[in-house]
Amino acid sequence: MNDTIASISTSLGVGAISIIRISGNKAIEIANSITKKKRLLEAQSHTIHYDFVIDNENIIDEVLISIMKSPKTFTKEDIVEINCHGGIATTNKVLELLLRNGARLAEPGEFTKRAFLNGRIDLIEAEGVMDLINAKTEKARKLAINQVDGKVSDMIKDLRGEMLTLLANIEVNIDYPEYEDILEITNKEIKEKIKTVEETIKEIIKNSENGKIIKEGIVTVILGRPNVGKSSLLNLLIEEDKAIVTDIEGTTRDIVEGKVNLDGILLNIIDTAGIRKTDDLVESIGVKKSLDLINKADLILYLLNNNEEIKIDDIEIINQIKDKNHIILVNKSDLDEKIDFSKLKDLKFIKISTVNNEGILELKEEIKKIFNLDKIETSDLTYLTNARSIALLKQSLEIIEEIKIGIDQDQMVDMLEIDIKRIWKILGEIIGETYQDELIDQLFSQFCLGK
Ligand code: GDP
Fold it and tell me: Does residue 229 line the site of ligand 1, with CB under 6 A?
């Protein structure tokens, strides 16, 4: 980690300016070597300098250079940022000069990795930086910034603190049993304490489901036989939000997937019309294929046609989605009612029409109800959002179960202590106080270049 790294930190392409970032012991020296004025070595920390980047005697660009000296920087190392004119050729040329003068091209996420390894941020905060970059809605942004500024880390640190107090009490009891003024800690007391920790962890896991929804959105699949109006529904939902439509090339339709912002929560909608080969969905992709989609979905919108009878295929798929989050929509309510509702038995449905907008508000309200979106609105958004942390919390819960069994079997307190220490350690892994190198490499490689 002693070498000096450099990378383009802004996105590649044409823009007004591009920023090239350099971090490491030689950051200032290397940057200085490619400037015309060569005055950066005597520059004060946290100052900006007007200069020219040169290659031998040739001027490459007119730039502004920020100098930030260790340790008050993102990586805790010396950092130099060169603001050059945007454009691929200029930016690449400046980067190339830096590399030629002793810097190494940074790997994806390497600046943030250094910030973590140098103790500037913990793992949750680092993951928050990545989430912040990828945030597509205001809620996702808030969630990520709470991770970046340490709110989520504090929640885990508090839990760890409680485990530590418990461990300290147990130790004192084991080491100084003869002192009468020490509060004797009994298995019953340990059980009570562990129970509150268990409740907190369960609450965090429950909330983290909301976190996942905020971060990744709700994968929504529209299913139904051909011509019931799946694409019409997708287009209608997207209409208000055209800016975030994804175009997927090579499909029979332009849009098979769209993102809709529902009160700050992203619905990632997949319209199965786009993947059908023939006109008959059930025939072409078969029940198996729809099953795959059903498994992938957080929410299934199943469309029926008000103007047609319900077919056996409909009943078959409806039976498969019954236990998942689903909404049955009876489309084309503007046409004559030919549908036989008795086949739906006591299943709930919403009547809609994509032609005159009927039932669309009701559909949105139902989605909000299913995912408790109104509740997410009022909460403070300090959730764990990544699978890694959630898996570790679930691991802690398993150990808590073992402790509870141990207590019921009157296990020696020293044995319980070992398990409590394990939980303390696992909680440490969440914030990165204890970690494995491979995990760190894998995690930071998911970042974009220059971050
Ligand atoms: P898909 O095959 O399920 O994607 O169905 P489409 O969205 O392509 O719609 C099939 C046909 O039904 C088209 O001609 C639409 O204009 C029509 N359609 C869709 N929704 C409605 C509706 O609510 N009312 C009426 N009357 N026609 C509709």
Answer: yes
Q: Considering only CA atoms, which residue is closest to atom 17 of ligand 1? A: 229
Q: How far is the CA of 294 from the centre of ligand 1 (A)?
A: 22
| Ligand 1 centroid distance, CA of 335 (Å) | 11
> Which DSSP string corresponds to 68-91?
E-TTSSSSSS-EEEEEEE-SHHHH
- Ligand 1 mean position to 359 CA, how many Å? 15
Distance CA(347)–CA(370), nearest Å, equals 15
Can you tell me the distance from the alpha carbon of 52 to that of 61, in angstroms, rounded to the nearest whole number? 6
pTM of the model: 0.66
- Written as six digits, the tokens of 32 are 């200085």
Residue 446 has which token pair? Answer: 């998911």
Q: Which of 221, 222, 223, 227 to mutate to test the pocket of ligand 1 (most atoms within 8 A of CB)?
A: 227
Q: Which long-range contacts (CB under 8 A, 24 or more apart) does 349-355 make?
A: 349/304, 351/306, 352/233, 354/229, 354/232, 354/233, 354/235, 354/236, 355/232
Expressed in angstroms and rounded, the spacing between residue 241 Cα and the centre of ligand 1 is 20
Q: What share of the chain is helix, strand, coil (3-state, %, to 5)?
A: 50, 20, 35
- DSSP code for 331: E
How far apart CA 46 and CA 374 sit, in angstroms, is 44
Q: Express each pLDDT in 343-390 by its tens digit.
A: 888 889 999 999 999 999 999 999 989 988 877 655 566 777 777 888
Q: Which two tokens stand for residue 210?
A: 């909301």
The tens digit of pLDDT for each residue in 99-144 reads 999 999 999 889 999 999 999 999 888 888 888 888 888 888 888 8
Q: In what order do the strands lie in the sheet with 245-246?
A: 245-246, 257-262, 265-271, 218-224, 299-305, 326-331, 349-351
Round the CA-based radius of gyration of the chain to a whole number and report it. Answer: 29
Containing 51, the helix (H) or strand (E) segment is strand 47-55
